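Example S7 (structure tokens).
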């Protein structure tokens, strides 16, 4: 059986049955659906929830499927700390798609007057979002020059039965493809894929060159070819095993207002003129599941994180082969900071790792480099290294006016730094110990002693009951599980 969304649901049911909940209680798509997930978030819980009865929606909605590192790790046969390494290994193995005539996504085909996107995509996620949004669509388009397929997730406002507004940033490949078509006064044909085996979502966050076919990357990440079949109304292939595909044309020379919309920064991303998509067909499974992504919520952060961590690992390894691991911490929205551990061989190497990291990803403002005894996924350890291994006058560096991200509320414009723009300072904290100088020794019980202590010998009635846990010592960061 080809991998699809249902394969993933079964994997979660088997591995983490307690994190998959279903409800047949009617839910209002305006704030209540995301309100349920927000309530769980408040208790630091991030279940995947199937809402079987969504008011005004013809299909059930699966919320927060990708809002946990542990669930993402199921895609890569690894644990939550192995995600970047596994993604990095697999992104190099590209598997071309298998071309088929048709597939489950064609069980219902709607064209012309039958099209009404609002009947399958009617969720209003956050207060002050401009309206109903598709936040989980992987937009797929083809490069007219070399035929390579590109995929990306962009916020998509639903403004009517057959009109969408889409907001790809200028740095994105889809913006570039649209621009190429616009110069020829032609629309860009797009397929918006909703619900599939999540390697499709992960591949959409691949950070490689434009020429690389991202359907082949999706195949490599999944370990099998993605089945593709012809679209109904476009000269484009679409994933045959998706839940829903919306076909459309991104019009040339047309921009209309879109937004605001809650962003990965957890602030409201401003509205502006955006690209317009005229929908030409909706195809879906007869029992389609609409997979939603909760914006301005951990799920939004985590989906974009894995490809970025893998890219960072790859780029830093080219300069510092002894890099150990890379974490885009949740506390920095999985975008604005990176914690990197290296096995430092010579002085200055920490700075080189940091400079590479800052250049590898425009969104990253802060690179903290630590030694290999620090776990970058443990923020308390990272901050301990900052507290005890950093002389701020020597080990902190600031680079002004780098290109970063407009969605960062502190980013500024070149003409006027009180106005929003894409520039910001980037900074480095080199929290590694010197190699060529003595440094104080760690104080700890010998490891071979404490690791070999059998607590049951000392406390036969049971260990741990009543013992202070980490959260009693210090409040944990609220957010998606980091371990
Ligand atoms: C949930 C989610 C929503 C996103 N929304 C946008 C968006 O509205 N605009 C944008 O430019 N990038 C957005 N991104 C980031 C792009 O999907 C990402 O940069 C992707 O790699 C772009 O692909 P491309 O460069 O191949 O076009 C989003 C990512 C996620 C995970």
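Recovered sequence:
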């Amino acid at each position: 059986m080809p991998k699809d969304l249902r394969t993933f649901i079964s994997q979660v049911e088997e591995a983490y049955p307690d994190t998959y909940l279903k409800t047949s209680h009617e839910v209002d798509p305006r704030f209540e659906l995301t309100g349920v997930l927000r309530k769980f978030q408040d208790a630091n819980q991030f279940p995947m929830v199937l809402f079987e009865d969504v008011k005004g929606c013809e299909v059930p909605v699966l919320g927060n499927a990708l809002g946990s590192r542990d669930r993402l790790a199921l895609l890569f046969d690894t644990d939550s700390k192995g995600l970047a390494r596994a993604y990095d290994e697999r992104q190099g193995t590209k598997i071309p798609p298998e071309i088929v005539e048709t597939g489950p996504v064609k069980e219902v085909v709607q064209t012309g007057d039958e099209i009404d996107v609002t009947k399958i995509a009617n969720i209003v996620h956050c207060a002050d979002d401009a309206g109903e949004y598709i936040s989980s669509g992987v937009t797929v388009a083809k490069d007219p020059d070399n035929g390579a397929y590109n995929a990306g997730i962009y916020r998509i406002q639903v403004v009517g039965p057959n009109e969408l507004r889409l907001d790809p940033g200028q740095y994105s490949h889809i913006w570039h493809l649209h621009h190429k078509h616009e110069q020829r006064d032609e629309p860009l044909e797009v397929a918006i894929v909703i619900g599939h085996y999540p390697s499709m979502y992960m591949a959409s966050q691949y950070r490689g060159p434009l020429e690389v076919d991202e359907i082949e990357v999706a195949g490599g990440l999944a370990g099998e070819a993605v089945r593709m079949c012809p679209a109904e109304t476009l000269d484009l292939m679409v994933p045959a095993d998706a839940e829903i595909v919306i076909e459309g044309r991104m019009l040339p020379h047309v921009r209309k207002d879109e937004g605001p919309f809650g962003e990965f920064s957890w602030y409201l991303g401003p509205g502006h003129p955006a690209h317009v998509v005229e929908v030409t067909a909706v195809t879906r499974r007869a029992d389609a599941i609409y997979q939603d992504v909760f914006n301005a919520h951990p799920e939004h952060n985590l989906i974009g994180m894995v490809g970025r961590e893998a890219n960072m690992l790859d780029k830093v390894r080219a300069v510092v082969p002894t890099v150990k691991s890379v974490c885009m911490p949740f506390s920095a929205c999985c975008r604005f900071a990176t914690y990197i551990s290296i096995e430092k061989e010579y002085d200055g190497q920490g700075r080189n790792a940091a400079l590479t990291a800052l250049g590898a990803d425009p969104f990253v403002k802060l690179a903290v480099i630590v030694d290999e005894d620090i776990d970058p996924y443990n923020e308390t350890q990272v901050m301990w290294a900052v507290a005890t291994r950093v002389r701020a006058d020597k080990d902190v560096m600031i680079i002004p006016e780098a290109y970063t991200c407009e969605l960062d509320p502190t980013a500024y414009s070149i003409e006027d730094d009180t106005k929003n723009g894409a520039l910001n300072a980037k900074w480095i904290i080199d929290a590694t110990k010197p190699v060529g100088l003595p440094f104080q020794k760690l104080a700890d019980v010998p490891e071979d002693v404490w690791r070999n202590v059998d607590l049951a010998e000392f406390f036969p009635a049971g260990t741990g009951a009543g013992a202070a846990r980490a959260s009693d010592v210090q409040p944990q960061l609220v957010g998606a599980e980091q371990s």
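Notes on this example. Residues 135, 150, 152-155, 167-169, 172-174, 204-205, 293, 300, 303-304 surround flavin mononucleotide (CB under 6 Å).
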